[in-house]
Structure formats: C-alpha cells, structure tokens
Inverse folding.
C-alpha cells in the first residue's frame, strides 16, 4: 500500500498534528486504489482503499497547546463578572 512522508508538530498537550504530506511513496500495485497503477474504472472493494502508516515523520516540538486544546482551555476559564 502507498505511504507518505509527513511533517507534523508534537504539542505540549500531547497531540500530534500532521502539517504537510511531503512525499508519496507509490507502491505500484494495481490492487491499491491510491497507486498510480490502479485502473481508474476499477470499483473493487478488494483493492486497498487506504494509505499505510506514515513512512517517515518529521516532528517539530511545540511548547504550546494545539488550537482545539487552547480553545477548550480558555472557554473553561471562569468568567469574571
Ligand atoms: Zn499503494
Ligand atoms: Zn482496484
Ligand atoms: Zn491538544
């Protein structure tokens, strides 16, 4: 099955977010829907429908929380009246 090299950010909250798909590794199989070799007209569900796990991950470490966590954190703060 086809796989990707990806870049991502590891946040302080523990979440990992993929920021870019850098390079595709085409497996060259006719039975993988993600491969360039796969016939377009094929609708067989026996063919692989998904990408494999990332081949490599370039990870940058962030000391911040990811956006959803930041929003959750700030919306949970008690509001001053
Ligand atoms: Zn493939
Ligand atoms: Zn197919
Ligand atoms: Zn998070």
């Amino acid at each position: 099955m086809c796989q990707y090299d990806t870049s991502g950010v590891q946040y302080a909250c523990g979440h990992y977010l993929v920021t870019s798909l850098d390079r595709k590794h085409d497996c060259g199989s006719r039975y993988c829907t993600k491969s360039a070799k796969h016939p377009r007209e094929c609708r067989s569900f026996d063919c692989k429908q998904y990408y494999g796990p990332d081949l490599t991950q370039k990870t940058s470490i962030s000391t911040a929380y990811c956006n959803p966590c930041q929003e959750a954190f700030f919306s949970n703060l008690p509001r001053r009246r």
